[in-house]
Amino acid sequence: MNFENFIDNRKKINVGFLGGSITEGAGSSNNKFCYAQQVCTKLGGIYDGVEFNCINAGVGGTTSTLGLFRMKRDLLDKNPDIAFIEFAVNDSDLPTTGIYMENIVRAIKKYKDIPIVIVLTITEDIVKKYGSVKNSPAGQKHIKLAEYYNLELINIGDEMHDKAIHDNIEFSKLFTDGVHPNDCGHGIYSDIIIDYLKNVDFKHSNTEQQLLYGREFKNPGLLMGNELANDTWKLSYNNMYGRLPDYIYSFTPGDELSFEFEGSFLGLYFTIEKDSGTIEFKVDDGQWHEKSLWDRFALQFNRAAFAILCEELEYKLHTVTIRNINKKDEKSEGFYVRIGAFTIG
Question: Domains, the chain, ranges and CATH?
Answer without folding.
Answer: 3-198 (3.40.50.1110), 221-344 (2.60.120.260)
